[in-house]
Amino acid sequence: MAAADDTDLTQVSWKDTAFIQQHGLNEHSIMPYFALSQFYDRSSLNEQIAMQARFNQLEAATLDKRQMTGIDYELAFASLAPPSLFIITKSMRRSPTHTDLLGAYYIIEGTIYQAPDCNALVSNRVLNSLHFVQKAFADLQNAARYQPAVGHFWESDEKAFAKATAALVADDNGLDDDDEMTPGDDIVVGVEGLTARSDAGSSVKAERRPLGGRPTRFLGDSADDRRRAGAFAASLDAAIGVTWSVAIEAPDACALQEGDAQSLAPTGDAA
Question: Positions of the region Disordered (predicted)?
């Protein structure tokens, strides 16, 4: 079946185990093997020469596809060392000296894949990086807390605030530092200060007043707040740097450019 020019086959692969066991894969058998896959275009110059060879081998021997125009497949790279690797380029031949690169295919251990183009590769990397940046901001938002009396703070600081508030309540009620509040006690921190109430009754009481007798403090008022904010900014900058480095990774590791394909001399040319 011919492969349409606008068909995206980058998500599929193909392998014929029976052919590999019978013929093996090398510079001479790789093109006939590739011609069995759905990646191969039956209207190509390679297929025209192969059809001529079936009926008139003498005439086929005189054909030179460099003098023809149309789709041309060439073996650009071959390595038999395990894992075996073959790279086949697909070009539109317009003259003996001019070709336009249309695509590339790589065969690893007998499995054929279509290489993605540069646009698809870069777009995928950028989308992946944006996804992880968005996820990082969502995680940070879930870890943020706010109380009118103290301002914004992180979830990791919540226990420290609860301990400090419990100490204030214990101080207001004449409790020692080692005394614990009974289960069911609830501490409410508001704009005006704090209120301690107990579901059990009147075991803990406190008047509403500014927290700790001091004016309300907001995040950033202390050196410790600024240190935590600086550490968070440094971590976020490092995370964005990692995702950006992944997004701009050189795409030529997975896709052939036209100049690279033309600079590689064909190691074999089979029908």
Answer: 199-220
